[in-house]
Amino acid sequence: MNWDVIVIGSGPGGYVAAIRASQLNMKVAVVECAEVGGICLNWGCIPTKALLKSAQVYKYAQHAADYGIAIEGTVKADFEAVVKRSRTVAETMSKGVQFLLKKNRIEVLPGFGKVTKDKKVVVTRADGTAELHDAQHIILATGARSRQLPNVPQDGIKVIGYREALTLPKLPETMVVMGSGAIGSEFAYFYATMGTKVTLIEYLPGIVPAEDEEISRQLERSFRKAGIKVMTSASVESVSTDNQGCKVSIKDGKGNLSEVACDVVLSAVGVTPNLENLGLEESGIAIEANKVITDEFYRTSCEGIYAIGDIVRGPALAHVASHEALVCVEHIAGLQPRPLNYDNVPGCTYTSPEIASIGLTEKACVEQGREILVGKFPFTASGKATASGNRDGMVKLIFDKNSGEWLGCHLIGDNVTEMISGVAVARAKKVTGRDILHAIHPHPTLSEAIMEAAAAAYGEAIHL
Fold first, then answer.
1. 410, 438, 441, 443: which one is catalytic?
2. DSSP 86-130
3. The whole model's pTM is what?
C-alpha cells in the first residue's frame, strides 16, 4: 500500500507526528509492535504519575490530623489496588490515543516495522506474516527501553527495570534503587511512601544530578526525612540473588565495599534507544554514539527518512519528542517551522517535593564565566505553602547581571511542575528579571514565589 507518511512507533513522538501529518492532508499510517501510545502512556510517564498520586493521597491520609481531620481506624494502602488503578489510567490514555488516530483517519499497522534498502517499510506481524508498504516519507520514532548494566543484568524478578516496577505483585519490604535521575527518584519516593525500606544509590556526588546543586541537596534532605537511605558517590559492583532476595555489593567514594540485603533491586540508570533491526545500516542511515544523526528538521542521512524522540540527540523526554514531531512534519509539508530550542526545554521530576527546572544551573553559569544575579525564595516564607501544610522547597532564579536575561529557573516544592510552563514562554519571549519583578502575581499562590525570588535577585525582597 502507498502512503504519504509512515511513522514507525506510536509514542508521544510517533502519534503526534501522525496526527499533524493527517491535519496537513497527508495519507498516514502508524506501525506499532506493542501498545498504542508507546512507553510514555503505557509504561512510563502516565502510570508512574498515577502511582505517585496514590502515594500522595496515602501520605495526606496519614497526616489528616495535621489538617484537623479525624480518620477512624488505621489508614492502610492496598498495594494491589494502587497498581490496578495505575494500569487503568494507562489503558484509558492509550484508548484516548487510539481514538485520536481513528478520528484523524490514521491506520494503525500492528507489527514490527523495518526500513528496507529501497526505502520501503516491511511490517512483520506477531504471527510472522509480513506486509510491504511504500511511503514518500518515513519517520522513525521507536523510543527507548531501560538501560542494562553488564555487571547488574536484569532478570525481571529480583533485578528489575521501570516496567516491572510498575506492576510488582506485592509490596517489597526492602528495595535498592540504582540511579537517582527522575525515574529512580520517583520510584524511590513511591515505594518509600508505600512502606518499603528504600536505599537510593547514586554514582555522582548528588542525587538528581542534572539539577542545580541546591535543588539536589534539598531533595536529599527531604528524602532522608522520609526515611530513604541515600548513598551518593557510590556504585553497585554486583548483585547476587537467591531465594531469600538480593545481596548488593556497593563501593563508596573512598573505595570501601559494603553489602546491602534487599528483596528487589530496581535498575534506573537511564535508557537505551531502540535501534536494533530497523534496517538502519542497510538503508545507509548514519548513527553516532548510539543515536541517529539528524539535522534541525530531523532528516537523516537517507533522503525521505526522518528520526525523532529518544533515538536522536537531545533530552529523552516525551514533550521534546512531541515538539520534534511537529517540526519534522511541518518541514515535510513545506511550512518552514522554527527549529526546536534545546536550551529552553523544561524538565520535571514528580517526587515529593516536586522538581521543575529550565535553563542553566548556577554552576554552569559560573563555568561559562557569566556575571549573574541569583535570587532565592524559600517556601517557608510562602503563605500558600504554609496554609497547604508543606513548606519544603524553594524557588531559585538566575539572571545575567548586565542584560537581565533569564538564564535559569530551578524550583522544588509542591506542584512546582505546574509552574514551569510560564517560565518557558517567558524565556522564549526574552523576558528579563525586572519584567518578572514588576509583573503582578496573585496572592496567595505558590507561583508568586517566582516574583519574590526575582525581587531577591535585585536586592528588593519584601518578604525575606
1. 443
2. HHHHHHHHHHHHHHHHHHTTPEEEESEEEE-TTSEEEEE-TTS-E
3. 0.95
